Amino acid sequence: MSPSMAGLAVLVTILVLLAVGTPIAFTLGFVAVGALILSEGWFAIYGVSETFFAGLANFGMVSVPMFILMGAAVASSPAGKDLYEALDRWLYRVPGGMVMSNIGACALFAALSGSSPATCAAIGKMGIPEMTRRGYPDSLAAGSIAAGGTLGILIPPSVTMIVYGISTETSIGRLFLAGLVPGLMLTGLFMIWALFDCWRRGIGLSNVTRHFSLAERLEKLPKVLPFLIIVALILFVLYGGVATPSEAAGTGALICLVLVAVIYRMWRAGPMVNVFRDTIREAVMIMLILGAAELFAFALSSLFITQTVADAIAGLEVNRWVLLLVINLFLLVAGCFLPPVAIILMTAPILMPILDSAGFDPYWFAVILTINMEIGLITPPVGLNLYVINGIAPQISLRDILMGSLPFVGMMILGMLLLSLFPQIALFLPDLIMGAAI
Questions:
Q1: Are 83 and 123 in contact (CB under 8 A)?
Q2: How many CA atoms, within 13 angstroms, populate the side-chain half-sphere of residue 17?
Q3: Less Cβ around it within 10 Å: N or C end of the chain?
Q4: Contact indicator for 113, 75 with CB cutoff of 8 Å
């Protein structure tokens, strides 16, 4: 069988297995083992376990469960509620300030948890009922939370960026820096749209029902600031070369556990057991996908599928920006069906040689890829954030949630266009702090 026919067979098999609900890790592993047996015979079975565990034999992988533990500790506490209330007390007099408060709270909570669904759930539980009570349209209330929640995979520390760094052998600290300014830029674009939308709908100061004194505005800050300081310190030790990502993640997770126990009095075993249970569940899922993806990449390479696809795309006589457009369209479609971690691990072996030959910076592309994944989180048919919002606000239809999210998808596309025109938006901070990439 030719590499092109083998690639088509692999693609069809993956789509069929995913369509019937097979977990991603098992899908990748089954296809990889089947492809190796068909190409090399049953003798290939002896190398499967070694290749699988080679995908996990990276010390940097320790940071993944540690950052997940840090996020789980924060997500299980009332920190999201306090973040939301603190911002609302400062922005309540701004037209559309309630929406802006929710978007800002999503951005801050995303930095703490690194999880888009957790951000949607934590902020949406308080924000959506309050916005609808104050007269905000259901679509705007739900769409702003769904879009704000996507920031969890871009604003550092981001598990998605860690997986990208491990799979492409790029610096995790530089990736975090590359995602910081674009994450803040997207937050600003979301807020600008929210302000404009509220202005055109006539939502102004008429819905302000109470006023907050300076003391009331400062009341929530002592509970919120320690968590934000932890994130800032983690970024500092990473960029300053003081600690490795694994060391920074482990220390941050321990401190966050202590903080939620002290600030929110989560001393009992029950809440802590739930934190570790959620951490183990998500970390094991990611680890299984990582190992299976390594096996899958090895199978693609053994069948010369990766090399054939890379040569075919690189051989296209098109402008490199047309090539990037094709890649982005592919990622947008894939993001509608698969989680970000799976897409990164499945496509990195194929895309990185192509991007390198086209002269695109891998750190800049990491941001472009992540924004694509963000769009996938709020677009059907699998848009995870849409279903999370529908779960916490069942009175709002999926159609209203989707319609409210679409303008924010436009803001993400605008963000990608700005990054394409001005790559230094993502690259100037890493180059300034860590020096130019070699």
A1: yes
A2: 19
A3: C
A4: yes
Cα 257 from Cα 70, distance rounded (Å): 7
What whole-number distance in Å separates Cα of residue 200 and Cα of residue 137? 13
Q: Name the residue among 252, 220, 273 with its Cα closest to residue 62.
A: 252
For the chain, domain boundaries: 59-289+306-434
Rounded CA separation 160/371 (Å): 11
As a whole number of angstroms, the distance between CA 384 and CA 161 comes to: 19
DSSP string, 248-298: HHHHHHHHHHHHHHHHS---SHHHHHHHHHHHHHHHHHHHHHHHHHHHHHH
Q: How many residues does the chain have?
A: 438
Going residue by residue through the chain, which has 438 residues, state the pLDDT in tens, using 9 for 90 and above: 677 787 788 878 887 887 787 887 888 888 888 888 887 778 778 778 888 887 677 666 777 788 788 878 877 778 777 877 777 777 766 666 778 888 888 888 777 777 777 778 777 877 888 788 777 888 888 888 888 888 878 888 777 888 888 888 888 888 888 998 999 999 999 989 988 888 887 775 444 556 777 787 788 788 888 888 887 887 777 766 677 777 888 888 888 888 888 888 887 777 788 888 888 887 888 788 778 877 887 787 777 776 676 667 666 667 888 888 888 888 887 777 677 877 887 777 778 888 888 888 999 999 999 998 888 888 876 677 887 888 878 888 888 888 889 999 999 999 999 999 999 999 998 888 877 766
Q: How far apart are CA 290 and CA 28, in angstroms?
A: 10
CB 164 within 8 A of CB 363: no
- With CA atoms as reference, report the closest residue to 137 among 90, 191, 207, 89: 207
Both tokens of 37, joined, read 């047996």
Q: Coil, strand, or helix at residue 338?
A: coil
336, 432 contact by CB (below 8 A) = no
Q: Is 357 exposed, middle or buried (0-12, 13-18, 19+ CB in 10 A)?
A: middle
Instruction: Please answer whether residues 207 and 134 qualify as being in contact, where contact means their C-beta atoms are separated by less than 8 angstroms.
Output: yes
For residue 75, CA distances in Å to 68, 69, 82 come to 10, 10, 12
Task: Enumerate residues 6+ apart whose C-beta is below 8 A from 413.
Answer: 375
Between helix 159-168 and helix 63-75 the angle, nearest 10°, is 170
The encoded tokens of residue 338 equal 């698969």
Neighbours of 270 (CB within 10 A): 8
Half-sphere exposure of 308 (CA within 13 A, CB side): 13
Coil, strand or helix at 437? coil
